[in-house]
Amino acid sequence: MQPIDWVIVGGESGPDARPMHPAWARSLRDQAVAAQVPFHFKQWGEWGPAPFVVRVCDPKVGWQGTDAELAEAKKQSEAAGATHVHTGNYYVKDGRTMWHIHEIGHKPWSLERVALSDGMEPIRRWGKKAAGRVLDGRIWDEQPRRVTT
């Protein structure tokens, strides 16, 4: 069996794109690094990670601004925060893998958002370009060494 020379990872894009669980990308990266195999993270795809909680104020203090400022802060929070949670669980329907993706009922600024269960990852449908290709704060562009003969 031939050794693996390069690991390239990318999420799906397009109207029917399914989200990639962020832990999968991290696991593949970690395995590649441990095996000293170059790792290239191409893209998140249509869906990408997003913060689960985006507070508009310190909950202990409460909002200190005007109603208009609060409305704007909530709008910005909703534009940045997760809209869904990827559970990592799936089922098969008509031969196609369907992932359990749950829409989050509370807004990112809501005090109802406190913690996620183990294995769940906050995500949102950003669009391919906006989702980007940063994995844990870094762009992974590694390539195999070129061999000249």
From TrEMBL:
Domain of life: Bacteria
Family annotation (InterPro entries): DUF5131 (IPR011101)
Pfam families, per database record: DUF5131 (PF07505)
Record protein name field: DUF5131 family protein
